[in-house]
Design goal:
It contains 11 helices and 10 strands. It is α/β, with parallel strands linked by helices. It starts with 13 loop residues before the first strand and ends with a helix. Its main location: cytoplasm.
């Protein structure tokens, strides 16, 4: 067990964001433990999770307040925390796991503190986004975190369409119950040949990294019961998309010896296009 030594010097008034482990408890930083031991007020997305983490590392809560702060109690909790800072107290906020503000309700708290002119500081640490990018093998010079895709089918299709030409590695969070459907939708929207990675339970006992094309991953997860935290990464769009004339020519040639469905799939994969879009083009050309 790691023992934290509280800082002797009192923390200055302000808001302190603390990154917490996404799996392995020892991934907390020493500075984060110092802040947890020294802050006047502690706030957390899940107070039970923070209490447990502090117990593991020997950090005593003592008589300090521990405030639950999440999207469902923002109207009540935010003013309370802001009053504490106004009274000259230090407030430390920890997300349930990972870096605050990344798919986390701390954004409103941070914005309010900045608007009122209070110091806002961060103790950086674990992040599922950066952890997944590091192990993915996909380009890391430019990436885009797009959060959770919409659950509704129509909204999700629009969401994926908007990602089709992003010139960066795209990183998504997804529920384990919907990961197979997401992979199928990504195949339809982005083409089955795009390189992708599915990370499950990062830093935990049953950590699993699955790499391949979208088509291969969709097949690998077919009929599989999936549990745990999921991060999906998708390679950037091809830098030079084929012009319309080139695609039409390739499609016409493919249609001479393939069914419309197979021709659309082959051309979509060859040029990194959405299979649905190429199939609609084939229908138009067939009816011309």
């Amino acid at each position: 067990m790691t023992k934290a030594t509280p800082q002797m010097q009192r923390l200055a008034a302000g808001l302190y964001f603390i990154a917490t482990p996404i799996g392995a408890a020892r991934d907390i930083t020493l500075r984060a433990l110092d802040i947890l031991a020294s802050a006047d007020v502690l706030a957390a997305e899940d107070t039970r999770t923070l209490r447990h983490l502090m117990e593991i590392h020997g950090v005593s809560l003592g008589d300090r307040p521990l405030v639950a702060y999440h999207e469902h109690n923002n109207d009540a909790a935010l003013p309370r925390l802001m009053r504490a800072i106004a009274e000259g107290k230090s407030v430390a906020y920890a997300s349930e796991a990972g870096t605050p503000l990344i798919s986390d309700p701390g954004f409103q708290l941070g914005r309010a503190a900045i608007a009122d002119g209070y110091p806002v500081l961060s103790a950086p640490g674990a992040s599922a986004v950066l952890c997944a990018l590091t192990v993915s093998g996909l380009p890391s010079d430019r990436f885009m975190f797009a959060g959770f895709p919409p659950a509704a089918k129509g909204a999700r299709e629009t969401f994926i369409r908007e990602l089709a030409q992003v010139q960066a590695t795209v990183i998504l969070y997804e529920s384990p119950k919907r990961v197979k459907q997401l992979l199928d939708d990504l195949v339809q929207g982005l083409g089955e040949g795009r390189k992708s990675v599915v990370c499950r339970e990062l830093t935990k006992r049953f950590e699993e990294i699955s790499r391949g094309t979208l088509g291969e991953l969709a097949a690998a997860f077919d009929g599989r019961a999936v549990k745990g935290e999921i991060v999906v990464l998708i390679d950037r769009a091809p830098e030079q998309a084929a012009d319309a004339a080139t695609v039409e020519q390739a499609l016409d040639q493919a249609l001479t010896h393939m069914t419309m469905k197979d021709a659309a799939a082959a051309v979509a994969q060859a040029y990194g296009l959405a299979r649905r879009d190429v199939y609609q083009l084939a229908l138009k050309r067939a009816g011309a």
